[in-house]
User: Fold this.
Amino acid sequence: MLLREVAYARPASLAEALQLLAADDGARALAGGQTLINVMKARAGSPDTLVDLSDLDDLKGIELGSDGTLEIGAMTTYTEIMASSEARARPILGEVCAQIADVQVRNRGTIGGNVCTNDPTNHLPPLLAALGAQFTIAGGGGSERTVSSDDFFLGVYLTAVNTGELLTKITIPAGRNDGFAAVTLGVEGTCIASAAASLNGSVRIALGCVDAVPVVLTPASDDADAVKQAVRGASMEPPSDVHASSEYRRHLAEVLAVRAVDQARGAA
Amino acid sequence: MSATTERSITVTINGTTYEREVEARKLLIHFVRDDLDLTGSHIGCDTGNCGACSLIVDGTLVKSCMMLAVQADGSTIESVEGLADGDELDKLQQAFREHHALQCGYCTPGMLMSATALLRANPSPSEGEIRKGIQGNICRCTGYVNIVKAIQAASGQAVES
Assistant:
């Protein structure tokens, strides 16, 4: 398919990438391209300029701190996360990445692209919201800020990363007791509803596909009734579409939250 | 550095190096098929679902309809044309032939590249691992059973004929 005409640059440094993004309102960062290129084909988005981040080695790789904190570069692919011995400190990351699409997509799709797209059907926004991840955003003039998942996901396809900024890394605190459950279109397809849970000190659940951003719940206990009660108490109005009615999504959210919590308990 | 709508790129495909001027908007699959006349790789869905356009770029299996040609600048690419040695089919191609792993053949180039990448990473995959390895490749004829058998056979595992 022929895309609309677009300019392309492949900067060699973060500073250069930020300059290119700031210089042009129509510029968009190109990470793995596994969403953006299809969006461009469908003319759902038509950037004037693509700033390819693939040469920015500072944005790649996974580091495990001595306290168990993981720092994952935004340009790290799903396949790299699955293969990383460091990422095994938080095994749910590799497990969920292995459920995204297929080999080819996992080879090019990146963790940063996944969360910056913030498609409500994506796997990683609810997962990272449940894990309490922090997002580091670089801006012009060497500025840098870090926001929590509660402040990062702002709306459908909308995050705290403004024009002229780039997500550089995602920081995930130590922990092991995590779970993820989803009902998908076909095995490992797009989520119809999803839930992630983390039981590290407290109970933290994030629901996907039920609102524009992950819905975070913190029930007092990991007991199934308490979890169901918390989901019901969230008074969600999930969207209806060809795959599921609003009511059915609400039902799935409850079921999946309990499954995710069960998995998290078993992962102890 | 500035952004440009056209770029000169260099890629090495199946051992041959090509240098071409391409538009930034051109998908890698169109570059390979239309500019280089390597038409073995197919375009099935054009939406990143079917896998008929799968290529191995710098050792990594990708769907070349979800990558721009300019992104492949400097890379080494393997396509289905590089599998056979002249008229001699490679092990996977031969196994596909013997186990009736294709009917219309449209998905075959992509399926062969996925199977090639799979066997490199995992020389003796289980049936489940094979199915996971070719999950990104859709075949509408065979029901996959014979494709799985062919990949098992090519990996030296015994299969029922």
Q: What stands out?
A: Chain B touches chain A through 36 residues (CB under 8 Å). The domain at 6-82 of chain B is CATH 3.10.20.30 (Ubiquitin-like (UB roll)). Chain B is about 30% helix and 15% strand. Chain B has two domains: 6-82, 91-154.
